[in-house]
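lol ok so funny story. i was supposed to be doing the assay writeup but got distracted and ended up predicting the structure for this chain instead. priorities right. anyway since i did it might as well share w the group, maybe its usefull for someone
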Amino acid sequence: MARVQFTTSRGAGRTQGVRNARAKLLLLAVLCLLPGLGAANMAWNGQSWAPLAVYPLVSLISLLLYWQDKRQAQGDAWRTPEKVLHASELLGGWPGALVAQQLFRHKTRKLSYQLVFWGIVLLHQVFWLDYLFLGSRFLPFN
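and the output, tada:
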């Protein structure tokens, strides 16, 4: 006997993939410019190679955390706490989190979550602006 599948109006008309992928990739590239330049400058000047390694590594961890949380949300299983997701973003995984939000369409509509996420992104941008252009005027080290 054949199974009949019904779609709800909420799921009707949805397509797979990232919407406006080119614009979102451009935004990601622009947002990664300051951290990338800052981390490269820090490494080139012999201060630390850590940011060059941390950003990609923690971004991958963030992406995997989002993937796991999305799967758990779909299966009504135990969820990854938002503070864990935000901690991974704060530690440098925000680029991976931004990619994961778009790939998995996860945590994109929750305003309170997005406010904290974009605050973390802004914090990273301000840190690298200060490091690169203001001589670490507002940073407690250097």
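Residues 50-74 form the longest helix (25 residues). Residues 4-13 have pLDDT under 50 and may be disordered.
back to the writeup now i swear
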